[in-house]
């Protein structure tokens, strides 16, 4: 089964060292939570074949600095990195991100895509908590293809809109707007904001209902454009 764990935020400039540290903590956390997902990593490039990748701080810092020195790099876009890992049979992980830029319209993001054998237990909420802790996003979600299709078809969701999936994360200002009678399990996140446990796999109808309530309450209002902040 394929599932996606994501976080999104607005402009937030930071040093190459700070960005490399976020990446290191993400990969270390992923290895701790789902050790079977990726034993070997490779870096995917825009041009040319993928190259072997070692997930340590020095390598990550070098990759970030190399990306920032490229002729087509822009601080309005930020620094992108895409890694693919292979692990135990039936497992595969992809981690991709675009961060430390100052865009006016394009959200910054981090996504973990996991392919796991049918019936495998995946700590989805813990992975979303990891993304929230490391990247301090504005909002985040755990979704799959069925959930995203249902949101687009039945709730008017469009790519780039704030969203929640089977599990969601909302930054403090968004969490403050969540209705008391939402019908989801709410848990304060140690770094601020809230995690929402919304629905079990396969229950897209509940996700659509909760998404609609949150949007009506203003908890999923988009960041103002041009964007001038990382979170609502």
Search tags:
single chain; 232 residues; alpha+beta; 10-stranded antiparallel sheet; globular
Overview of this protein structure:
By secondary structure, this protein is of the alpha+beta class. 31% of the residues lie in helices and 24% in strands. The protein contains six helices and ten strands. It has a ten-stranded antiparallel beta sheet, with helices on both faces. A hairpin with a 7-residue loop joins strand 2 and strand 3. Helix 1 crosses helix 2. It is globular and about 50 Å long. The protein starts with a strand and ends in a 15-residue tail after the last helix. The model has no long low-confidence stretch (mean pLDDT 92).
Give the ordered list of helices and strands.
EHEEHEEEHEHEHEEH
Structural class: alpha+beta
Q: Alpha-carbon distance between the termini?
A: 33 Å
What oligomeric state do these chains adopt? Answer: single chain
Percent in strands: 15-25%
Number of strands: 10
Question: Which stretches are low in confidence, meaning pLDDT under 50 for 5 or more residues running?
Answer: none
- The percentage helix is 25-40%
Rg: 17 Å
Topology overview:
Blueprint: E1 2-9, H1 16-33, E2 40-43, E3 51-53, H2 57-68, E4 79-86, E5 92-99, E6 108-115, H3 124-135, E7 139-143, H4 145-155, E8 167-170, H5 172-175, E9 185-188, E10 194-197, H6 204-217
Antiparallel strand pairs: 1-6, 1-7, 2-3, 2-4, 4-5, 5-6, 7-8, 8-10, 9-10
């Amino acid at each position: 089964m394929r599932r996606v764990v994501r976080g999104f935020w607005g402009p937030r400039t930071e040093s190459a060292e700070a960005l490399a540290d976020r990446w290191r903590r993400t990969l270390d956390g992923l290895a701790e939570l789902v050790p079977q997902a990726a034993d070997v990593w490779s870096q995917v490039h825009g041009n040319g074949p993928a190259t072997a990748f070692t997930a340590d701080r020095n390598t990550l810092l070098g990759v970030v600095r190399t990306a920032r020195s490229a002729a087509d790099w822009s601080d309005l876009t930020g620094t992108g990195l895409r890694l693919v890992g292979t692990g135990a049979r039936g497992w595969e992980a992809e981690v991709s991100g675009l961060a430390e830029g100052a865009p006016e319209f394009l959200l910054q993001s981090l996504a973990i895509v996991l392919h796991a054998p049918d019936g495998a237990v995946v700590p989805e909420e813990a992975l979303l908590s990891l993304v929230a802790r490391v990247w301090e996003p504005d909002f985040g979600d755990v979704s799959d293809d069925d959930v995203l299709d249902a949101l687009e078809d039945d709730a008017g969701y469009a790519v780039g809109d704030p969203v929640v999936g089977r599990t969601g994360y909302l930054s403090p200002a968004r969490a403050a707007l969540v209705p008391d009678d939402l019908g989801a399990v709410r848990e304060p996140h140690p770094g601020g904001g809230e995690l929402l446990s919304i629905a079990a796999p396969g229950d897209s109808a509940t996700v659509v209902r909760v998404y609609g309530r949150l949007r009506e309450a203003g908890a999923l209002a988009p960041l103002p454009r041009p964007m001038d902040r990382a979170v609502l």
